[in-house]
Amino acid sequence: MDPLRPEAAGAPSTGGAPVAPDLSELLKLSARGDQAAFAELYDAMATRVYGLAVRVVRDPAQAEEVTQEAFLEIWRMASRYDVERGSATAWMLTIVHRKAVDRVRSAEAATRRDTTYHSQNQAVDHDSTADAAHASLEARRVRAALHSLTAVQREALELAYFGGYTHTEVATMLDLPVGTAKTRIRDGLIRLRDTMGVGA
User: Fold this and answer.
1) In terms of pTM, does the model score above 0.70?
2) Is 160 exposed, middle or buried (0-12, 13-18, 19+ CB in 10 A)?
């Protein structure tokens, strides 16, 4: 079976309300090559994965491609999931976000290539060059500051700010009370501010 187009693999009926699948366990089984487990994982996460992809790439067709690429990566990398470092949902959405950002960057690079000739025939705008250099330095500072966060703070911030999810949505994804999710996000932002030396 093609892991990117898994067959339906719903949980056995219990006669009552459907039981939410254990995503961590499904990832472990997928890591061992269990295609039925991966199909169930796909069914459970496809809507969220596509939703995040379309938020980042802003194009439904591109988002579908990102979704397929992300599930292929999840299938290949399932053995690397570590339950001690965060929830299965956050781990998978991080892969999706990375794939979506790569797609956006690739599109931007193609646009830059298309305009190279024009750009090379224009006078250099030194102010723009200085601005670009400053932005690059700021981006490095932000990346370094993100690495100073705890895993749980970084996980919550990535979902809230890179994924565009509300505090309530982040809490649901991480199986946390809303207050706890807000605290992780707030503490992460405070630590980022302190690490970067930004005034209150």
Assistant:
1) no
2) buried
